[in-house]
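Worked example

This section walks through a single chain of length 821. The input is the sequence exactly as stored; nothing has been trimmed or padded.
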Amino acid sequence: MKNNANKHAATGGENREKIGVFLCECGRKIAPKIDLKLLEKILSNDQIISHVMTLPYSCELPGIEKIREIVQDKHIGRVVVAGCEPRIILPKLERELEGFGIEKGRIDVVNIRGYVASVNQGDPSQLASKSAKLISSSAAYLDALIPSPKTRIEFKGPVMILGGGMATYSAAQELVRQKIETIIAVYTEDTEDVIRMLHESYPGKWDSHERLRAIINEVNESPYIKQITVGKLEKVRGVMGHYVVTFASEKDKPPLSYEVGAIIAALDGEMHNQGTDFGHDGKRVLCHTEMDEHIWLHGAPGHRVVFWINDLETERPYANLSARTAWNMAIYIREHNVFSRVSILYNNKIKILLSSAEQIMSRELGIEWIPYDGTIRPTVQDGFITYNDQEDQIEKELGWEQLVLSPLRHPGVEQLKVAQILGLHTDGSKFLERNPQMVRPEQVGLDRKFIAGSACEPCDLKETLRQGRRAAHKITELIGLANEGRLFAPSMVCTVDQGKCTGCGLCREICDCGGIAPVDGPGGNTPRVVDPMSCTGGGTCAAACPYHALSLQNNTTAQREARVAALARRLDENEVMGYGCNWGGVAAADHAGLRGMHYNSRFYLMPVGCIGQLDLSVMGRAFLEGANGLLLIGCPPEECHHSYGLDHAWSRVLLIKKMLDLIGIERERIALAHADLNKPDQYIKTVNSFVGIIDKMGPIKRNEMMEAKINDVYDTLNNSRVRWVLGASLRRPWETTYPSDQRSALAYDETLFDVLMEEFLRIRIINLLKKQPGVQQLQDISCSLGEERQQILSCLKDLTEEGIISRIFKDRIPYYSIRQE
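Given that input, the structure is written out below as tokens.
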């Protein structure tokens, strides 16, 4: 063990927090295979590491207590633990060290057991050398950390429930019972009007009228409720805890704005008729909502009524909901008119879910359930519907005087507009339910505005009311934590530098969290703000920002660049580096380590939360610092745990390939691969194959000109125009194919390549003029860059007009130089 407590002062970094490294023997799983004494010695010479120590077990209580002791005695601010799988011990270490100043983001775990000791065969000193490279890169990652303070969330204002759906009242009931001030924005204050219009979204629910009426009355009578009738929702600004909600008002009057702490959107879907294709005429052939209206006005019919559950014929997956509605209506009709006859005709592919009691009731009321062969579509005739019997395959007829069809369910045009204003992605007539991101519970972002109702996904009234109560219950819990001062934003979420943000909106388009919103500003500019309670920390939005205005706090691009640079500088020429996402590459590597499966020891894997977090600059930095190959290993296609990070990484890798090709480096030196946690053997094949590819090519031939070109590539990858054009290809949440929809793919690719060539040449000229003293002639610049004079001249003209470079004439010959600030 060696203490380097004064090392930072010697390197001019006296303001840095000290980094402590703790090596784990892990029984005999690490210590005998890796020379830990040599490893300590190597790490002690690392200028950014202040303290190195070996422990028997760093994750057990004695080891944790020793780490706490060293942290306090040596004033350690950041910790690297070199042991086993981070997904196992990192959460525990974060909990145990949080009270000692080592908060989340200030600790990193390097799996030297799974990436070195268990999978590599070699001399203990060689394995110590490999371990040191991985640990030093981790220390560099922590050294580049600029800690973000914990953000306490406070609720400023009441809860607002908007949208006008039935969940409004169940949510409000839950909130007022907890004595939480609530504003409900509705289209009518008349309880009977609400009951009267129930059938438009939830037909056949007459048995729920009294219950719903009681809920509405309880809400309206509560002193904690403020009921407002408003126009259309115009905009929502702010983050959880403090929103400003604006509604349109009457003509010539200013909009109405309300400050609220949380929002629940109660959005009910709509039901439309099926059109003339099935004989609909609105009189004899109806849909569910029209039948409900008919019964409301004229009472239960006393003739033959047939409910045809024809959802599958219209390719709609809501047959069970339609069957349940038909069943409710059939019961009402039979109970209120003994002269009625009711049949329910359904496709035999539908599984009818009736309880034993309901089956008995069906027999007692004489309600027929008639299945038909779903391979042959029934035909509607005047007074009859012809169907194919599923038992004997004989075509039969069923008489009717009123035929009731299943409705076409739609989220609703106005509901979709509200959803868009709330920051949800909408796609035509698709419902609003989002695919949940497959992340750990502590990474799940909260809905910015809680959504309830059948516009999210078709459901019955009971489920809608339950969703409203559930949304209110979640908000109640959050308000309780906030009131106790215990509600904090997660430590690793995206933040916006509004000084850099131009309000282009790219981040909001590709974010699937729904946590990015505009902020009103002077001159019409709308820089973005991230709601920290919604962000899941996927980070692909930050990696996509053309202006580097977005960053993933406590896990920034600068940190990843520092890690990749530290490792690349230490690699031998025949060694290869890679990044693996925690859910794909890292998980498969951990599994291989647990099983002791050997693979090429010259491969070095670095972890990243999602492969989509990797900025172009991180990939470019690897080659700039000496890497000869870079392998990115993500989740299997369509299984990205952060929605579309894998697709975005795909687009970035393709751009890097183009840039390498431009400067004469093989495109194959960077690659994207996929790994499955349960298939470590496939991970090993991937790694060995890529190392073999790099071996065949050999190291990059680096000379002064090539190094300059790689540096120019790195600068091009940070060019806002290049990054913006690339952003046009990134998969949006509404796109359904991997690696994103390919409309006009070739035309786009040609445009992207043209932009790359233009910006690359500009950057090469600028960097050359910065490096060369004095002024340069066109011929000198062309010769130095190896490019045609006409291309150089055109670019010089543009740069001069933009004021980036200066041009003077001597004897009618132009000379160029960088314009001095």
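What to look for: The mean pLDDT is 90.
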